[in-house]
Design a protein that fits this description.
The protein is of the alpha+beta class and about 400 residues long. It is built from ten helices and 13 strands.
Length: about 400
């Protein structure tokens, strides 16, 4: 992998996943792993303008079957520029390759994991790497379970240990992880300080809370899971350019998430839980005035929808998901989801709450192809998904 193919892979892959690519002759395989480095402005590295907006580091291991060993380890840094997109680090020839403590810890953790695996027998193309003890599982036990699951017949073996066949090995790992993430969701929803703490912990921007929510939802695509009309939704691309830029190369419409149902694409725009949904007074009709923030958000989604429809039709052969695969889902009058505000927006006296709820629901029902969803509703839906899975596990 090199040149344009490598840049395409780095730009489209899921971070914190191991990608396995066999040699054409079957003599070996590459293990590729990409992490998101701290954004520009970090105190760890300084660069001359034009400043990159994002950095990614790619670790590649070359494994040879005959000798059953890793013969080569390669590190590369890639930067994202607004005009040029993703490019391999152009300063490598002039400056030493520097790793922040955060990046070093992630890469060394991965290397420790790989030393415990039978690299010749791994039979998955992409393997998610779940770090830490967020799921409440002993790290050593979790490492052994993950090592077993990616072996041939590993899932079958674990399922036989469970015995009743009502829960899969993926459920064993996922239920605890999702419970922990649901608790994180609740803390962030209840206290804006927790949103900033999450941003600091994940090394993302702390001055734009929307970025923290985008990161959290991108990491937990199971929260979108089954769509509101019960079609399964998975993330094809985050921060997807769904339209073309102007003649100066600026202002291309960007959707926070491009999702894929079985056959069609779906756009998602994420605002903040604290975004006001209403103005300060009722209208003459008795309905409550909707806020400017809400109406501008809807207008933004409508623009993204129109732009994506055009781009998908004219550039279908060049639209790739974040794994670097061609997007197969069709785009026909795409459905849109707007996540904005929370139950706090309905505060007031009993009559005021009733008027706001009625106004909001009437507005949503008449918003063609835009599903307006509050964070509270999204949280309640995620709680149902976790609770339902846990009940199945206890049957």
């Amino acid at each position: 992998m090199g040149g344009a193919d490598e840049t395409t892979f780095v730009s489209g892959c899921k971070t914190d996943h191991i990608y396995v690519n066999d040699f054409k002759d079957g003599s070996g395989r590459f293990f590729n792993y990409v992490i998101e480095e701290e954004e520009s402005g970090s105190t760890t590295v300084e660069y001359s303008p034009p400043f990159p907006s994002r950095n990614r580091i790619k670790l590649s291991l070359k494994f040879i079957r005959a000798s059953n060993e890793v013969t080569e380890v390669t590190l590369k840094r890639f930067k994202h520029y607004k005009r040029e997109g993703w490019v391999e680090d152009r300063f490598m020839s002039d400056e030493p390759f520097k790793l922040s403590h955060f990046s070093f810890e992630k890469l060394t953790s991965l290397l420790r994991l790989l030393t415990d695996l039978d690299l010749a027998s791994v039979n998955q193309r992409r393997i998610p790497v779940v770090e830490g003890d967020a799921a409440g599982i002993d790290p050593e036990f979790a490492k052994k379970v993950k090592a077993l699951l990616i072996q041939p017949d590993g899932q079958r073996i674990v399922e036989e240990l469970v015995g009743n066949g009502l829960i899969t090995s993926h459920d064993i790992v996922n239920i605890g992880y999702r419970k922990a993430q649901l608790e994180e969701f609740g803390r962030m929803l209840a206290d804006p300080r927790q949103v900033r703490a999450y941003a600091e912990r994940e090394r993302i921007r702390t001055d734009q809370p929307e970025k923290a929510w985008q990161h959290f939802l991108g990491r937990n695509e199971w929260i979108f899971g089954f769509g509101l009309d019960y079609r399964f939704l998975g993330i094809l691309q985050d921060e997807a350019e769904v339209g073309t830029s102007d003649i100066a190369g600026r202002d291309a419409p960007v959707s926070d998430f491009l999702l894929g149902a079985t056959h069609f694409t779906v756009l998602v725009e994420v605002k903040q839980p604290g975004t006001p949904l209403f103005g300060s007074s009722r209208a003459r009709s008795g309905a409550w005035r909707l806020s400017t923030d809400l109406m501008e958000s809807v207008s933004q989604v409508l623009q993204q929808k129109a732009s994506w429809q055009t781009k998908a039709e004219t550039n279908a052969a060049r639209n790739y998901d974040r794994d670097g695969s061609l997007i197969r889902q069709r785009t026909t009058d795409p459905k849109c989801i707007l996540v904005v505000g929370s139950d706090g927006a309905f505060a007031g006296s009993g009559s005021e709450q009733e008027a706001k709820l009625r106004t909001f629901e009437l507005f949503r029902r008449d918003s063609r192809n835009i599903e307006v969803l509050t964070y509270t509703e999204l949280y309640e839906r995620a709680a149902f998904v976790v609770g339902h899975a846990a009940r199945q596990a206890n049957m």
